[in-house]
C-alpha cells in the first residue's frame, strides 16, 4: 500500500522549480546548468540564490526535527541507552556532522535546535510540550503576502519571491543562538519567563542577520539575569565536578566540568 502523505520537502522543491523555470531566459534557456545560469539576467539569478536559501532552511529544519526524534529513541538492545549511542556516536551533534560530513559545530547547531523544538514523551508515552514552542513556530515559513504578519513588509531586505517558497522569520542558526542564551538563563528563571523572553527575542530578531540575532539574544538574556554575573557564576561553581583515573599505561585521565575561572588555570597549564 502506497502512502499518500506528502514529502516534507515537496513544497520547497516545487517553490525552487517555479523560481528556476521563471529565471530561465525565454529565448535561450541553455542546455546545461552552467549555460542556463550564464543566460539568466541579474535579477533572476539573485532570485535563484534566495530560493536556494529557502530550500536549505527547509532541509535544515527537517534535519533538526529528525535529529531530535532520533535523540529520544532508545537503543534497540536497551543496553546502550539511546539509539545515538547504539549507532556509535557520542551525541546527536556528532552523528549529524559525521553522517552529513560537515563541521562538528554545524552538526551541534542542528542537534541543539532539534532538541529545542522536539516534543519529548513522558513515562507513560504521552507527548509533552517541547522546550521552546515559540522557536519551533518561528522556524516555519510565513507567507510573504500575509497582511497579518508584521514581519513581512517593505522593510524585509530579502523578500521571498511570489513564485517561490515563503521565507521563515528565523533561521536555524538564529534559533540556536536564542536557545543557547535562554538556556544559560534557565537556571535563574521560571518556564513562563523563558517562554515570554523567547517570544520577545524572536519578534525583534525576525528576518535579521545572524550578527543582530546574537546581539538581541544576549540582550534578552541579560535582561532576565537581573542579579548580574555573581549569582550565575556561583551556580557554575556549584556545578563543577572532576574525576581522575590512573590508566594502566601510567597516564592520568582527567575529566572535568569547570567554571570559567577554574578552566582558565587548566588552559594555562
Task: State the gist of this model.
This protein has 269 residues and is mainly α. It contains twelve helices and two strands; from the N terminus they run H-H-H-H-H-H-H-H-H-H-H-E-E-H.
Task: Note down, in words, how this protein is organized.
- Helix content is 55%, strand content 4%.
- By secondary structure, the chain is mainly alpha-helical.
- Among the domains are: 10-166, no CATH class; 238-268, no CATH class.
- Strands 1-2 form a two-stranded antiparallel ribbon.
- The model is unreliable at 150-159 (pLDDT under 50).
Q: What share of residues is helical?
A: 40-55%
**Strand share of the residues?**
under 5%
Measured distance between first and last alpha carbons = 64 Å
Radius of gyration: 23 Å
Please describe the biggest sheet, giving its number of strands, its sense, and whether it closes into a barrel. Answer: 2 strands, antiparallel
Whole-number average pLDDT? 83
Count of DSSP E strands? 2
Q: Which term fits the overall shape?
A: globular
Structural class: mainly alpha
Helix segment tally? 12
- The strands making up the biggest β-sheet line up spatially as 1-2
What is the succession of H and E elements? HHHHHHHHHHHEEH
Provide the low-confidence segments as ranges. Answer: 150-159
Features:
single chain, mainly alpha, 4% strand
Give the arrangement of secondary structure elements:
Blueprint: H1 10-23, H2 33-39, H3 42-71, H4 83-86, H5 92-100, H6 104-117, H7 133-138, H8 172-185, H9 191-205, H10 210-224, H11 229-238, E1 241-246, E2 252-257, H12 260-268
Antiparallel strand pairs: 1-2
Helix pairs in contact: 1-3, 3-6, 5-6, 6-8, 8-9, 8-10, 9-10
Amino acid at each position: 500500500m502506497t502512502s499518500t502523505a506528502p514529502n516534507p520537502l515537496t513544497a520547497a522543491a516545487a517553490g525552487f522549480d517555479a523560481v528556476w523555470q521563471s529565471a530561465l531566459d525565454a529565448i535561450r534557456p541553455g542546455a546545461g546548468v552552467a549555460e542556463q545560469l550564464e543566460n539568466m539576467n541579474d535579477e533572476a539569478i539573485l532570485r535563484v540564490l534566495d530560493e536556494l536559501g529557502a530550500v536549505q532552511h527547509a532541509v535544515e529544519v527537517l534535519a533538526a526535527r529528525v535529529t531530535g526524534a532520533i535523540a529520544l529513541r532508545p537503543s534497540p538492545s536497551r543496553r546502550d541507552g539511546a539509539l545515538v549511542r547504539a549507532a556509535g556516536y557520542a551525541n546527536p551533534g556528532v552523528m549529524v556532522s559525521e553522517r552529513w560530513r560537515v563541521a562538528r559545530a554545524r552538526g551541534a547547531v542542528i542537534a541543539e535546535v532539534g532538541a529545542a523544538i522536539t516534543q519529548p514523551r513522558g513515562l507513560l508515552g504521552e507527548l509533552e510540550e517541547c522546550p521552546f514552542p515559540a522557536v519551533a513556530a518561528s522556524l516555519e515559513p510565513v507567507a510573504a503576502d500575509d497582511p497579518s504578519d508584521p514581519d513581512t513588509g517593505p522593510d524585509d531586505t530579502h523578500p521571498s519571491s511570489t513564485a517561490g517558497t515563503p521565507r521563515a522569520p528565523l533561521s536555524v542558526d538564529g534559533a540556536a543562538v536564542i536557545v543557547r542564551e535562554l538556556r544559560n538563563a534557565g537556571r535563574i528563571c521560571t518556564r513562563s519567563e523563558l517562554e515570554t523572553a523567547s517570544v520577545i527575542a524572536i519578534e525583534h530578531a525576525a528576518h535579521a542577520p545572524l550578527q543582530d540575532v546574537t546581539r538581541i539574544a544576549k540582550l534578552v538574556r541579560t535582561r532576565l539575569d537581573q542579579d548580574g554575573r555573581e549569582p550565575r557564576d556561583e551556580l557554575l561553581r556549584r556545578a563543577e565536578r572532576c574525576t581522575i583515573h590512573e590508566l594502566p599505561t601510567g597516564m592520568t585521565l582527567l575529566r572535568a566540568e569547570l567554571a570559567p575561572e577554574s578552566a582558565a588555570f587548566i588552559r594555562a597549564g
